[in-house]
Amino acid sequence: MGIKEETIKMKAAAPYLAASSVEQRNKALLLVAENLRANAAKIFEENKRDLAAAEEDHIAQAVMKRLKFDEGKLRDVIKGIEQLVALPDPLGKVTLKRQLDEGLVLNRVTCPIGVIGVIFEARPDALVQISSLCIKSGNCAILKGGRETTYTNRILFQIIHNSIIDAGLPADCMLQAEQHSEIDELLSCHETVDLLIPRGSNSFVQYIMNHTKIPVMGHADGICHIYVDRDYDPNKAIPIIIDAKTQYTAACNAVETLLIHRDIAEKFLPVLAKALKENGITLRGTKEVTDLIGGETIGEQEFKEYLDLIVSVKIVDTVNDAIAHINKYGSHHTDSIITENAETAELFMQMVDSAGVYQNCSTRFADGFRYGFGAEVGISTGKIHARGPVGLEGLVTYKYKLFGCGQIVDDYATGKKEFHFKDL
């Protein structure tokens, strides 16, 4: 059976999953966590097979880090599941209750999006996070991981799918696609798939966006900045920068460009250069930066996502120049200012056009788990529906329920009756 036929079955199963109780969905999640623990050794064994194959294919180190699914990542995904279970039901929440007239009441109520296709590269932990969020939010999910994690994804999906069935949820509410050819077939399923969430490289996400009629939620780049203001605290700046670059270099929320206020450049840059060198980070700076502290010189417009132990450095004259640079060269993901000046911080946070704007902390906090969302399906840099780390709230929409007792529109159109709006 092809993807199109499978999505038709999922579309039919979607209303049943949407109508399931939160107790049933939480039961499925608890079973997933329990079965992941019970099968840890098997999961690690399958992951070793993927890692060995990746080494033979000379996969880049940045990708290898994402491929690895070890005890730490297993612990994190289980914590994320447990957080999700503890969160309230995202479905059936009344966000508006309004009386239109006597005996005519309008409710706006949260509900699942429906059928979501998630396509991701080299991230087995993403499969668990996405599946868990879809279960809790009552969404059917089609999961397509990269070929680099074939064995890990396969065993993880089997564990999750069996847990869903054991909890009494529809078997057709979750599907794993394994063949690369199935991606294009999935992209053509605009009649049965409600949303696509791609996670991967810039070129990969752009390909998805350019080849489907299905709405796409996600981001194409992670060019994150840290601006060190003239009113910075020396005790905060270096630890924040090092964490943002090294805590997980291959992450989309790792810092890629540092902007330094001119008034502190002569004093701060040598300290920065020393810290970067001690942590194995290559510095690539504009000419005036490298004239001061050495390093590889880059052009005034050569700022990009490295996903490696490399960082770009530039001197700026004012906070406004930093803001202008970020809005021009950034990816609207996450950007941070290091300053003790509250007014400067507020200006930065108001004017930087990004999903996350921080003061005096690492860009690596841009994460659904760290936001207390339980997990995330990805980070959206768009402005419609969901923005930033997309957790449960980003996976629900709403419908309007109108309760009447025989009212007809003609009575209001002809003036026989009048609306009497009242929020309840």
TrEMBL record:
<keyword id="KW-0641">Proline biosynthesis</keyword>
<dbReference type="InterPro" id="IPR015590">
    <property type="entry name" value="Aldehyde_DH_dom"/>
</dbReference>
<comment type="pathway">
    <text>Amino-acid biosynthesis; L-proline biosynthesis; L-glutamate 5-semialdehyde from L-glutamate: step 2/2.</text>
</comment>
<dbReference type="Pfam" id="PF00171">
    <property type="entry name" value="Aldedh"/>
</dbReference>
<dbReference type="InterPro" id="IPR020593">
    <property type="entry name" value="G-glutamylP_reductase_CS"/>
</dbReference>
<keyword id="KW-0963">Cytoplasm</keyword>
<dbReference type="InterPro" id="IPR016161">
    <property type="entry name" value="Ald_DH/histidinol_DH"/>
</dbReference>
<keyword id="KW-0560">Oxidoreductase</keyword>
<dbReference type="GO" id="GO:0055129">
    <property type="term" value="P:L-proline biosynthetic process"/>
</dbReference>
<dbReference type="InterPro" id="IPR016163">
    <property type="entry name" value="Ald_DH_C"/>
</dbReference>
<comment type="similarity">
    <text>Belongs to the gamma-glutamyl phosphate reductase family.</text>
</comment>
<dbReference type="GO" id="GO:0004350">
    <property type="term" value="F:glutamate-5-semialdehyde dehydrogenase activity"/>
</dbReference>
<dbReference type="InterPro" id="IPR000965">
    <property type="entry name" value="GPR_dom"/>
</dbReference>
<comment type="function">
    <text>Catalyzes the NADPH-dependent reduction of L-glutamate 5-phosphate into L-glutamate 5-semialdehyde and phosphate. The product spontaneously undergoes cyclization to form 1-pyrroline-5-carboxylate.</text>
</comment>
<protein>
    <recommendedName>
        <fullName>Gamma-glutamyl phosphate reductase</fullName>
        <ecNumber>1.2.1.41</ecNumber>
    </recommendedName>
</protein>
<dbReference type="InterPro" id="IPR016162">
    <property type="entry name" value="Ald_DH_N"/>
</dbReference>
<keyword id="KW-0521">NADP</keyword>
<feature type="domain" description="Aldehyde dehydrogenase">
    <location>
        <begin position="12"/>
        <end position="278"/>
    </location>
</feature>
<dbReference type="GO" id="GO:0005737">
    <property type="term" value="C:cytoplasm"/>
</dbReference>
<keyword id="KW-0028">Amino-acid biosynthesis</keyword>
<dbReference type="GO" id="GO:0050661">
    <property type="term" value="F:NADP binding"/>
</dbReference>
<dbReference type="InterPro" id="IPR012134">
    <property type="entry name" value="Glu-5-SA_DH"/>
</dbReference>
